[in-house]
Amino acid sequence: MTEQTLWQAGDYVLDLQRPHIMGIVNVTPDSFSDGGHHADTRSALLHAEQLLYQGASILDIGGESTRPGSPAVPLEEELARVLPVVKAATAYKVPLSVDTYKPEVMQAVLDAGASIINDIWALRWRSGPDGLDGEQVVARHPSCGVCLMHMHRDPQSMQVQPMQGSLLDTVQEVRAFLEQRSHVLRSLGVTKDRIVLDPGIGFGKTVPQNLALLAHQRELMRGGHAVLAGWSRKSSLGAVLEALPPGVMDVSYKSDLLAHERSLASVSAHVLAVERGARIVRVHDVAATRQALAVWEAMHRTES
After folding, report:
1. Inter-residue long-range contacts of 182-188, CB under 8 Å, 24+ positions, other chains counted
2. What are the catalytic residues?
3. pTM attached to this predicted model
């Protein structure tokens, strides 16, 4: 299968022959890593500018936390959080992604100038029996990009009852799900170059299952789609660090390791993901990730 080399994202066409950094802008009071830090429009925009300065080429704006156990946010509240940021951020002239599963939010942000819909539900959410659905919203748009993610169950229960089966079963189940969701969209007229796939690290998987998805990530690309990797500060990385034995100075990681203390592990995971074919990495730590990927790219230039 031919590898995806371009991602059509609204008015933007991203060259996927090199990795892109998607900087996270959480306009929320309760996200697991930086909730409350950028919860108003002004601070969110200042943060977005900083991420672009550090090397992000895409911004991902979200108005609802989807951490394990997180409560749903009412539609009007999510719109009030994200719409002002999207409208103002169009001035930056970069692709704007919005992290949402609600079709009404998708429609509103695309109308406001967003380029990409990033959906943890892979466009399966329905707003009532006669309401909008995400498939319709994306299919009716002439060119927006979309990221389809795998999630087992829902944010309230996904880590209470994670996926079952062997590690390879997990990889194959995630691949089959994402390929099926891509097929549905393409049957509605969405071209293949508008779609990228996200294995959903931490969304209903155990630590070994998440690591297996990283190790076998190229399996997810067999259908010809690019992969977006989202390892940033995830609890699986905390579990890996907490299992380390004490060092020579008798320093060990505590079980309550904070999310921002997983930054170096996040950078390492994203470089490993890029090495295994990912072409978009969704990160909090843009500057450190950009430095690491610069080394990766420099090494590969010497091979050509």
Report:
1. 182/148, 182/223, 182/225, 184/123, 184/135, 185/123, 185/135, 185/138, 185/139, 185/146, 185/148, 188/135, 188/136, 188/139
2. 234, 282
3. 0.93
